[in-house]
Design goal:
The protein has helices spanning 13-44, 50-64, 73-92, 204-207, 209-221, 227-261, 272-275, 282-288, 290-304, 350-366, and strands spanning 2-10, 108-113, 120-122, 127-130, 134-139, 147-155, 161-168, 180-185, 189-193, 198-200, 264-268, 307-311, 338-340, 347-349. The protein is of the alpha+beta class. The strands form three sheets. The protein has a seven-stranded antiparallel β-sheet with strand order 2-6-7-1-5-4-3. Strands 10-9-8-11-12 form a five-stranded mixed β-sheet. Strand 13 (338-340) and strand 14 (347-349) form a beta hairpin. Helix 5 (209-221) packs antiparallel against helix 6 (227-261). The longest helix has 35 residues, at 227-261. It is elongated and about 80 Å long. The two termini are 28 Å apart.
Length: 367
């Protein structure tokens, strides 16, 4: 299986210069090859393969722009292949036409491939050998074993540099368990299980609202493009990055606990994009990160030999009595937190009842 390990790196001044130059070169190649491909199709209705696009880069762009030879050749090739994927996706899946890249994008990255030992990880000395950069100081907080396939070097809006290493490795499956669990996702609590366990919603962004507001006000007073503007913008980016890291760390802990303890995990298939149109709840929905949690359930279940199922979006989990199946339409209102079934007199906690119904529906789908 393929697994990615992400580490922070601390390049020196000359390495930073070369990394930033590579960002610019990959962007230049991506935009020029995309423009050439579009022009050729518009004028002659000719289509190019990714090999033709790469040949155009090597035979035309590199001859006209010698500085393209100073950076890693695999980074340029991968930029072209990424453009090709986006271009083909536009025709096959009717998605948007690939956008030209801008040097003002807050996130910059490039990918290079492993070949002939050009990438090495020295865990003892906290260094990573990268093509053209040689050894770069890094924070190697966890080890891995396996074959390195490629690495992606990225720069975040905060100005920090990271390397993501794609490794072909083995993953040890968890022992088979008899536990099955249904999960109701919410805002008051991040999620509630059919066992009655509740995982709190940390509401991370609320803890930093005042700091974000202060930095936003400070940024608005600065002259755009000035040194103070750039410094304040980086402070703001670091604050957002901290919020993201805290939220993601908590979600990893929750998903790891649930995956390790249960053989079958069942959740709702929420249409988050549609729910975000509710302006009263949009901020809370974005902060709780349901999509990220379910994404983690999906790939961790695959890694560790678990079964992950999503029930239909329109399944009325909150309205049904999990004991007798009676449907109570009064519970459509989110203000109803507890209700008694008129048919069997069972007192229900809204979220736990929904989680039990989700578990039943998921097991029915499995059967």
């Amino acid at each position: 299986m393929l697994r990615t390990y992400k580490y922070r790196i601390y390049p020196n001044a000359s390495q930073v210069e070369l990394i930033n130059k590579t960002f610019g070169c990959t962007r230049f190649v991506y935009n020029n090859v995309l423009a050439y491909r579009k022009e050729l199709y518009d004028s002659e209705k000719k289509s190019l393969s990714k090999v033709d696009c790469n040949n155009y880069c090597n035979r035309v762009l590199k001859n006209d722009n010698e500085w393209l030879r100073e950076v890693d050749k695999f980074a340029l090739t991968n930029a072209i292949y990424n453009m090709d994927n986006a271009y083909n996706k536009f025709f096959k899946e009717k998605t948007g036409f690939p956008k030209f890249k801008s040097k003002h994008d807050s996130n910059q990255s490039y990918t290079t491939n492993y070949t002939n030992g050009n990438i090495e990880v020295d865990f003892d000395n906290n260094k990573i050998k990268l093509p053209k950069l040689k050894y770069v100081k890094a924070k190697l907080h966890r080890k891995f074993e396996g074959k390195i396939k490629n690495v992606t070097i990225s720069r975040l809006p905060s100005g920090k540099y990271y390397v993501s290493i794609l490794v072909e490795t083995e993953c040890v499956k968890y022992p088979v368990s008899d536990n099955k669990i249904g999960i109701d996702l919410g805002i008051k609590d991040l999620c509630v299980t059919s066992n009655g366990d509740k995982y709190e919603n940390p509401k991370t962004i609320n803890k930093y609202k005042k700091r974000l507001a202060r930095l936003e006000r400070s940024l608005s007073r600065k002259v755009k493009g000035s040194k103070n503007f750039i410094k304040t913008k980086q402070k703001l980016a670091k604050c957002y990055e901290k919020i993201t890291n805290i939220r993601r760390d908590y979600l990893h802990k929750v998903s790891h606990e649930i995956i390790s303890e249960n053989q079958v995990i069942i959740t709702e298939d929420l249409q988050v994009k549609n729910m975000m149109q509710n302006h009263k709840l949009a901020s809370s929905i974005a902060d709780v990160s349901w999509y990220e949690l379910t994404r983690q359930f999906a790939y961790k279940a695959e890694w560790y030999g678990r079964t992950y199922i999503k029930v239909d979006t329109f399944y009325a989990s909150s309205q049904l009595c999990n004991v007798c199946g009676y449907q109570n339409s009064d519970t459509k209102s989110l203000s109803v937190r507890k209700w008694t079934c008129p048919n069997c007199d069972t007192l229900h906690d809204r979220d736990i009842n929904a989680a039990k119904n989700i578990l039943k529906e998921g097991l029915r789908i499995m059967a």
